Amino acid sequence: MKLLNEYGIAFALLGAVLAALVPGIASAKAVSMGGVAGAGVITEDPAQFGKVLILQLLPGTQGIYGLLIAFITLSQIGVLGGSSDISFVKGLLYFAACLPIVIVGYSSAIKQAKAAVASINVVAKRPDQFGKAMIFPAMVETYAILALLISILAVNGVSGLNI
Amino acid sequence: MALQKMQRIYIYALKKDKDRILELLQRRGIIEVRNMLKEDKIFRREDIGHAKESSEKNVAAVSQALEILNSYVKENKSLLSSLKGRKELPEEVYASFGEKLESVVEIAKRIITLSKKIAEEKAELIRLQNQIEILKPWVNLDIPLNFKGTKHTAGFIGTLPKEWTLEEIYEKLAAYMPLDVEIISATKEQTCIFVLCTNTFKDNVFETLRAMDFILPSISLDKAPAEQLKDFEKQAEEIKGRINTYLEEMKSYDKSREDLYFLLDYETIRIEKYDVIGNLLQSKNVFIITGFIPEKDAKHIEEELTSKFDLAVEVTEPKNKDQVPVLYKNNGFCEPLEGIVNSFSPPGKGEIDPTMVMSLFYYMLFGLMLSDAGYGFLMAVGCAFALYKFRNTMERPMKNTLKMYLYCGISTIFWGIMFGSYFGDIFDVVGTTFFGVEKVPVIPPLWFFPVEKPMLMLTFCMAVGILHLLIGLAMKGYQAIKHKDYKSLVYDAVFWITLLISCVLLLLSMEMIKNILGINIELPAYAVKAAGILAIISAAGIILTNGRESKNPFKRILKGLYALYGISGYLSDVLSYSRLLALGLATGVIGSVINKMAAMTAGGIFGPVIFTVIVIIGHALNIGINALGAYVHTNRLQYVEFFGKFYEGGGTLFKPFGMHTKYYKIKE
């Protein structure tokens, strides 16, 4: 067990790194999908740039949520300074705590991008319906936010555990 | 929280006054013209297609001309010009513009012709330049390119691929002496040659040359290349000169730009008027205008019209089947949010205007999500500055947008102070890195740090959510009262409000919930008991009444049960407000990450400079992405959670007959 305990920090770091990696990859892909659709709209009607840009950016937030969890975890486990004395169990717990944003962040970013692309098409045809079009991708984001919430609470909670 | 009351207006007037009356109404801009009467044998609508067409043609020509002009002569437009609003023009300019109209249209047409000419000349220039390129290798040849030979000799002028020397060519042609070969020019790609042989060997020489991939030049000219080249170059110069004069002329129209823009506005006004004329019922001497007018303006316009013209005005209440247009009546605090309501949908028939109630929460929710005093300060100051600088000329929609962000900014400052966030934790970082401050936080939060007590923050967010939802339900009740639909008031609003409040109380009495939320409230036993009873009564009420549109009692109960199942929807609605916590934390934590990264570089002489650069760029990005998030998710909470409880929309906005110009405002 003592030997294992030396690997606690590795699992915790793995969780943090995945939280930055996976949703980041998904958001990059998602934003590029929006960009491709948006560029098409701009060739026809450059005046819609502002609206299209907002829709393109919507699925970009998952990457930021992932970064957020990564950062909180890094600072909790002492990688950014302080003591990094993490037991094996605690390391695994940190890893698990990161999973919601890793998995939901990935999937929701891609799904949200699809809704965003559809909304960009709405703006292309009916720019006055932007307010409604914006809501569809925002609905998808709810689940990323819920995952972020659980990850934040879990990471914070784990740091308080005495194991 | 209200809409302007609308009335039907009928104006019966003499045709001889038609133009003046219409002009007056257009200038006042308070009547939305609608067809309310049918055509009959005497009163008919006029076909205005023809008159409108000429205006539309002018608009098309001038728009095209402006586009061309802008591509040749850049317009001086500052970054802030969109804030400035339309330029004001005295009325005389508008009145006298009719005389100028033709000449401005001529200018537009001239600009279009010029651009065509420039394009043609440029194409010609390119053609010439190509020929010059082809001729250049031949410049040393002193006979014309189409030289075919004399009486006894045959001449071949053309090119061979790759580089050839004189010996190599002679070698190939050795059998057909006597002949003369001249290399005019040679490069790696091609060798230009002139071969003169006797007529007897003409065909053999040609065959041999062909076998060497000999090609005749692609142009055939009567003059010697050098001479021809001079001609071409002269022509090219002439074309360039012509293009320049055209360009000069194009530039001279820069000063006509204002006129062109004004013509667009002028024709827009005319087209608007033609559209109205097409809707008028006209007999031989009389015409009738029908439409909607806000009640507050009706009296005034009636007086003005009757004092100036011989006519009759009739104002009546709108009929039940009328789709009455929507015009808001709000104070300066909630007016900015009319746009947000509109982008959902303006209030439908019989609905109340939700702007006022929404505004209170809108600013609050936005502030909670951005929740950084520094960012809020930047937003508020930026908007206030623009509002002050362009206070006289700014257009209303722009003014409203800026005002909305000003209030959102102020709310953000408030919540930033409550939660102790100033550009993340910039004061702490600057203090500890540069000034050796040890006591952090430098400015403690007025309430608490959400990062340190996320559960408390979550509880607060959900409490805000429950309040928001309850107010949504209360609005439904209020709407029911307004329609005197007291059944709906009790069944759809009161029962649900009671059920929600009692459920919340019951949850708060449970140990588990108290532990999760980390709150410590001891509810008195009788309150819990009362809540339980109320919950059962209201749930039963909902089961019995929410399916009331079905006559079949069995179906009715089933529908009622399904409606009660909607309580799970309330659960997800409340949880949805946890985004306030998540987005608020995101702003603060990313802000601190930026500060931390900046602090890592802070050592050395250039440290403070690098620190400042990172801080500025980082926070600029953070404010952008988080303000966007706050805006989108505030809208979502309003549209989905709040409006979902009582508001459907579906109305159309009031579009008065007026002067909807784009570039100029005509002063009274």
How does this structure look, described?
The complex is a heterodimer of chains A (about 160) and B (about 675). With about 160 residues, chain A is mainly alpha-helical. Chain A has a single domain, classed as Four Helix Bundle (Hemerythrin (Met), subunit A) (Up-down Bundle). Chain A is about 85% helix and about 0% strand. Chain A has 6 helices and no strands. Chain A has helices spanning about 1-5, 10-45, 50-55, 60-75, 90-125, 130-160. Chain A is elongated and about 65 Å long. Chain A starts with a helix and ends with a helix. The mean pLDDT of chain A is about 90. In chain B, a hairpin with a 3-residue loop joins strand 9 (about 280) and strand 10 (about 285-295). Chain B has 22 helices and 13 strands. In chain B, about 60% of the residues lie in helices and about 10% in strands. Chain B folds into 5 domains: about 1-45 and about 280-325 and about 655-668, Alpha-Beta Plaits; about 45-135 and about 225-270, no CATH class; about 145-215, 2-Layer Sandwich (Alpha-Beta Plaits); about 330-450 and about 580-640, no CATH class; about 455-575, no CATH class. Chain B has about 675 residues and is α+β, with helices and mostly antiparallel strands. In chain B, strands 2, 3, 4, 9, 10 and 11 form a 6-stranded antiparallel sheet that branches. A 3-stranded antiparallel sheet of chain B has the order 6-8-7, with helices on one face. The relative contact order of chain B is 0.13. The chains are: A mainly alpha (about 160), B alpha+beta (about 675).
